[in-house]
Design goal:
Blueprint (H helix, E strand, L loop, with lengths): L1 H22 L4 H16 L1 H9 L2 E2 L6 H14 L5 E5 L6 E7 L2 E7 H6 L2 H16 L2 H28 L13 H39 L2 H15 L4 H6 L27 H15 L5
Parallel strand pairs: 2-4
Antiparallel strand pairs: 1-2, 3-4
Length: about 290
């Protein structure tokens, strides 16, 4: 994950240097705008994610069993208890959000609560708490920061080149500035898209391992992943489309039918996650189905 993040950062440093060299523009105003957006995203991530999902924070009186599970797992993981939320959808899934363990929220869908056994739900919740412990929201915010910076630099540079008549610094002896920016931007976007999704897949593997270590029983998360992925095929398409925007947050992506390869996925294939968990289970001396 560190290597991939470093490659992503290097990519955007090169991108910024190319644009500054081509356009002779100052970087400070653009950086200030992006820093402001990143801070807003970072400090409001829990509220924004819950609002986008249509999830409701619930009290102990409203969901005592769910609160008990979260409290028990937090004690085992040595984490402060996050906010507990429920999302009313038949899609079986869960997610966590928040900028730090002290400012986090975990959410389960009604579909997950109704379809899984308590031990399986604990495995899922432990996975989400691992995201909180690993500060994955911070990691993805940093990755998004570079992406936003590149997008704004591209937009300013492209508009500047177009509105200046496409002139370049070599008095029209070379390709127009807007064309250089467009080509470089396409390459940077394609590479950053792949790198950000690679980081996202690593986050899922790390959270799966975290769940196994917290619960001491990786077989329950394995069972939960199998049930969630198989049950997803029974969910009406309209319900899957309704939650598609939360795909990157969920423990299992609702985009179950994909024509693209793993390189472009934000979640690892279920088969690979199960294989990794099976290996962890063998190391722990646990049963593997």
């Amino acid at each position: 994950m560190i290597l991939t993040s470093g490659l992503l950062g290097l990519l955007y440093v090169i991108f910024g240097a190319v644009l500054i060299s081509v356009l002779n523009v100052g970087l400070v105003p653009v950086v200030l705008i992006v820093v402001g957006l990143a801070f807003f995203q970072y400090y409001t991530s829990d509220k924004l994610a819950l609002a986008a999902a249509g999830a409701k924070v619930v009290s102990r009186e409203e969901a005592p069993a769910l609160h008990d599970m979260v409290e028990r797992l937090c004690a085992m993981a040595d984490l402060p208890k996050p906010k507990v939320a429920i999302m009313d959808t038949p899609v079986p899934n869960a997610f966590a959000t928040g900028r730090s363990p002290k400012h986090a929220a975990v959410c389960v869908t009604t579909g997950l609560w109704d379809r899984l056994e308590p031990k399986e739900i604990e495995g899922v919740l432990a996975h989400e708490l691992s995201h909180v412990a690993n500060r994955d929201v911070l990691i993805m915010t940093v990755a998004s920061f570079f992406a936003m910076l590149a997008a704004l630099l591209t937009r300013f540079g492209l508009y500047g080149g177009l509105f200046s008549g496409g002139n370049n610094r070599d008095n029209n002896n070379g390709p127009p500035v807007w064309l250089i920016i467009l080509v470089v931007s396409i390459l940077v976007y394609a590479l950053s898209y792949i790198l950000i999704r690679t980081i996202s897949r690593y986050r899922e593997y790390a959270a799966d391992r975290g769940s196994a270590l917290i619960t001491g029983a990786p077989e329950y998360l394995m069972s939960a992943l199998q049930k969630i992925s198989s049950q997803m095929t029974l969910i009406p398409n309209r319900d899957l489309r309704a939650v598609e925007g939360m795909s990157a947050f969920f423990i299992v992506s609702p985009k179950i039918k994909s024509a693209v390869g793993e390189l472009f996925m934000d979640h690892p294939p279920i088969e690979k996650r199960l294989a990794a968990l099976a290996e962890i289970a063998r190391e722990m001396g646990r049963p593997v189905a």
